[in-house]
């Protein structure tokens, strides 16, 4: 029986890199791909970034593979106008995806591409676990009396839920990141994580860092980190900072998971409208996102390892797209991965 994957190519380079991931998956199993517009493409087609029918199809799928969304043609400051990014928030909320996982592991073949010295990043292997459906992104917001407001809300249940994901993924240590010296939500976060640790995960080391200190330590001592556990806004920022340790955001995948039902798997990078249609986009983060789908979404661990190994070997063999300082096209980079699969 085939595995049904809803494919949301999205905007910009999304459709180009999605094709690479589909080619790799077709080598590894029997997949049925169901393609739907999403983000800006859905605004153009349906007037909304996420159509209700598409959300229903996602709920019925085994997994959801997402490309990228957004672009200048849909940028607006009109609060009533639809924006592509609203589709991401709606998809996460609609599927109950509360945990975002972003692995960060610089590849030795690309140490020289990192803005940090090789000896600084050598041995780095971390996982950023970001809470995805609470916090300021989902709180009340608006404008009144010449000002604007955004509300950050968290409950103990939301914090415990993401905490269990972070502790469960850790090998030895969880670094919980907050701003408890200023924010009341962060004080609740710290209290809850500390209590959860003592009650359920005493065998895992726990440390608390303020978010500004965490941002500095990511640059100063990245290999110190095992699992970074944090709330929505801080996780959004820190995961992008961590991404640059690899030398290119074009290498990093992510997984968004919930308590049940399909997960959503997507690259960390954006839609890169400036290079869309030129055939030079880096497909490796999209391919590695497919590997995360195999592992975390479908339980196909051997196939996931094979795909990740193929990416590593392609890089060892010298494949470099322009973002990595080379001249390989999307098709050439894809072909190199497939040749090592």
Structural account:
The structure is a single chain. The protein is built from twelve helices and twelve strands. It is 40% helix and 20% strand. Strands 2-1-3-12-11-4-5-10-8-9 form a ten-stranded mixed sheet, sandwiched between helices. Strands 6-7 form a two-stranded antiparallel sheet. It has 341 residues and is of the alpha/beta class. The mean pLDDT is 94. It is globular and about 50 Å long. The two termini are 23 Å apart. The chain folds into two domains: 187 residues, Isopropylmalate Dehydrogenase (3-Layer(aba) Sandwich), CATH 3.40.718.10; 132 residues, Isopropylmalate Dehydrogenase (3-Layer(aba) Sandwich), CATH 3.40.718.10. Helix 1 links the parallel strand 1 and strand 2.
User: SSE order, as H and E?
Assistant: EHEHHEHEHEEEHEHEHEHEEHHH
Q: What is the number of helical segments per DSSP (H or I, 4+ residues)?
A: 12
Q: Overall 3D geometry?
A: globular
What's the β-strand tally? 12
| Overall CATH class of the largest domain | Alpha Beta
Uncertain parts? none
* Overall average pLDDT: 94
> What would CATH call the homologous superfamily of the largest domain?
Isopropylmalate Dehydrogenase
In this structure, how is the largest beta sheet organized? 10 strands, mixed
Level of helix content?
Answer: 40-55%
β-strand amount: 15-25%
CATH architecture of the largest domain: 3-Layer(aba) Sandwich
Rg is: 20 Å
Q: Structural class of the helices, strands and pairings? A: alpha/beta
CATH fold label of the largest domain: Isopropylmalate Dehydrogenase
Strand order of the largest sheet: 2-1-3-12-11-4-5-10-8-9
Number of domains: 2
User: End-to-end span in angstroms?
Assistant: 23 Å
